[in-house]
Design goal:
The chain is α/β, with parallel strands linked by helices. The protein folds into 2 domains: 149 residues, Nitrogenase molybdenum iron protein domain (Rossmann fold); 110 residues, Rossmann fold (3-Layer(aba) Sandwich). It has 12 helices and 10 strands. The chain has a 5-stranded parallel β-sheet, sandwiched between helices. Helix 1 crosses helix 4, helix 2 packs across helix 6 and helix 6 packs antiparallel against helix 7. The longest helix is centred in the middle third of the chain and has 17 residues.
Length: 267
């Protein structure tokens, strides 16, 4: 028991003070970077004890840095979580079985979320987290904001043929949230038309051999800045912050803002 107390004090010293929620709200620790952003919006003051360490890394976070900095973080180990003694832990579906077992044996409820591949799936996750944390009304408000943002960016005109090219040369395939974001903001995905699934690799040579009207690059990949890309005629090149593609939830309106901004610049 003494070792757990010592560990808790050390954790507080490293990650900042943890203020616990007052009243009937269950306390929460998130190990899921996509859930972090949702919980930060719907949780009562002091209810969210810690977010995942990913949200404190600007290269991996979908949250704005100043918002993520308002919360403590953990590295995701069972020991760190147990030291905080939350009522609920939100993880992803890939949580280690031993970690989940240790948390559940301590009486902690574990909620595991998968990857949201559509607007509907993302709104369902918001609803699920609202129910799990006693914040149904706040969750409904956030869902309404996301849905209104989605509708506000509906493109009524002719779509522009585009490729969304991500880090590692992979593309957004049909059935992925990134693909749905492109369609909503006025782009027709050339990679999906070619039958490429989510995460399929698309080499530079194939892009140049059958170029789209627009190439949107997200991330830092050598092929993106290859001289051949810059010399190719007829291709309009734009960039998208890769953090806008990590998660759904509150990120959706921000991603649509940028994609719609790009679409307005395309003839």
């Amino acid at each position: 028991m003494r070792s757990v107390v010592v560990f808790a004090l050390a954790l507080a010293a490293c990650s900042g003070p943890v203020e616990r929620a007052q009243g009937d709200y269950p306390t929460v620790v998130s190990l899921n970077p996509c859930a972090d952003a949702i919980l930060a919006e719907i949780a009562a003051p002091g209810q969210l004890l810690a977010v995942s360490h990913y949200s404190h890394d600007p290269a991996a976070s979908s949250m704005l840095p100043e918002r993520a900095a308002q919360f403590a973080s953990t590295g995701g180990t069972a020991e760190e979580v147990l030291a905080l003694a939350p009522d609920v832990v939100v993880a992803d579906v890939f949580i280690q079985p031993a970690t989940r077992r240790a948390l559940e044996q301590a009486g902690i409820r574990v909620v595991a979320l998968g990857i949201a591949s559509s607007l509907e799936a993302s709104l369902e996750q918001v609803e699920a987290l609202g129910a799990a944390t006693g914040n149904k009304e706040r969750a409904a408000h956030l869902s309404g904001e996301i849905a209104r943002g989605w509708q506000a960016h509906h493109w009524n005109g002719e779509p522009a043929i585009a490729i969304l090219w991500q880090q590692g040369g992979i593309v957004a395939g049909e059935g992925a949230l990134a693909h749905a974001l492109m369609q909503q903001s006025g782009f027709a995905s050339l990679s999906a038309a070619r039958g490429l699934g989510q995460g399929a690799y698309l080499p530079l040579e194939e892009v140049l051999a059958d170029p789209p009207q627009v190439v949107i690059t997200a991330g830092d990949e050598r092929a993106f800045s290859h001289p051949a890309m810059r010399m190719a005629s007829g291709i309009q090149h734009y960039t998208l912050d890769s953090s806008l593609l990590y998660c759904g939830g509150p990120t959706i309106p921000r991603a649509l803002d940028r994609l719609s901004e790009i679409r307005r610049q395309v003839p």
